[in-house]
Amino acid sequence: MCYFNYITDGLENVQQKKIFKENKEKTLQREEPCAADSVDSLMAEMPFVDTDIEEECAMHATSELNSKKKRKRTTGRDVEEGIERKKKKNKQHQPNYFVSLPITNPKITGSIQAVQDAIIQKDQRLSKAMVRSGSLHVTMLVMHLSSEEEISIAVGALSDSKVFVDNLLKGKRVDLSFQGIDHFRNQVGFVNLAENDHTTLLKEIAETMKMIFQEKGIMTGEERAFKPHLTFMKLSKSTELRKQVKKIDSSLYEDFKNHYFGDEILHRFDLCSMLKKKQPNGYYYCESSIVFGEKQAAEPDDAELVSLSKRLVENAVLKAVQQYLEETQNKSRQTDGSPAKTEEAASGSKNESDNDNSKKEP
């Protein structure tokens, strides 16, 4: 009997030790810190989930373990603040002005409108991506102007560019031929400029203008090679649209892939604001312009001016003579001794004489 009790007591001790061990393991598990993944899943439910805080969250998960983790958390805040400063700096230097070559040929604007209508018929959502015909242009330069003083400097740089552009043109007419459609990363749809001598000249003008603006202290954007193009559609025009459409399907404008849109005669450059209110026709707010080329040369030459002056003089002389004759006739009618009055008096006397003679006859 004693032996049986000894065995029973031994089994109970073993079982109690096992239970004690299991309880101890559970207690230790509750005391362990949460894993970083668990913290991230909790942070995802927080209202500032879109903030760039991944590094800070990961460090915060183990911040109570030792002072080293605390120092890392501070470093995380520094990183975040640095990112915010960089974002703010980039926003302050985003382009807000540009030099524009306006597109005014009705054939080009009409053809682009036809393409836009065809695309919208296939995808109504893209109506928000279309550039208005009044806003169509080729961008020559982009820049950030932060004050009225810088705007004034840019106006002066554009004015100085006229002399250099005139020297490059040398009186030649520049026809810019627009043909074919292409895209940038399926985000922007544009019409190409056909590669020819005139397009090469336009690129040379852009480089010259860029140099002049930079010499004035105006930085002009990217260092990439100038690629002239005519944008007619871009997803960035609508934040809502960009959530719905990630890419523009090139098949939407497949029928116009090699379409000829027309030629634009180079005649004007404008310094335009991206942010100020547009003009009623849809074109950008314009600070200044320079005019040259074919449309300026279309003004009357010397021979035309001489011929026009001659016609004006002849018309003036004829009008003066006619006016003189009318005034003379009016004065003659108002004067008693005028030929008209004398004739009337003579006619009256003759009638009276005839009446007297008729009375004397039997």
From TrEMBL:
One of its GO terms (biological process) is regulation of protein kinase A signaling. GO terms for molecular function: protein kinase A regulatory subunit binding. Binds cAMP-dependent protein kinase (PKA). Interacts with PRKCA; only the cytoplasmic form is capable of interacting with PRKCA. It is found in: Cytoplasm; Nucleus. Residues 63-95, 326-362 are annotated as: Disordered. Keywords: Cytoplasm, Nucleus. Residues 75-84, 351-362 have a biased composition (Basic and acidic residues). Gene3D superfamilies: Cyclic phosphodiesterase. The keyword Nucleus applies. This is A-kinase anchoring protein 7. GO terms for cellular component: cytosol; nucleus. The keyword Nucleus applies.
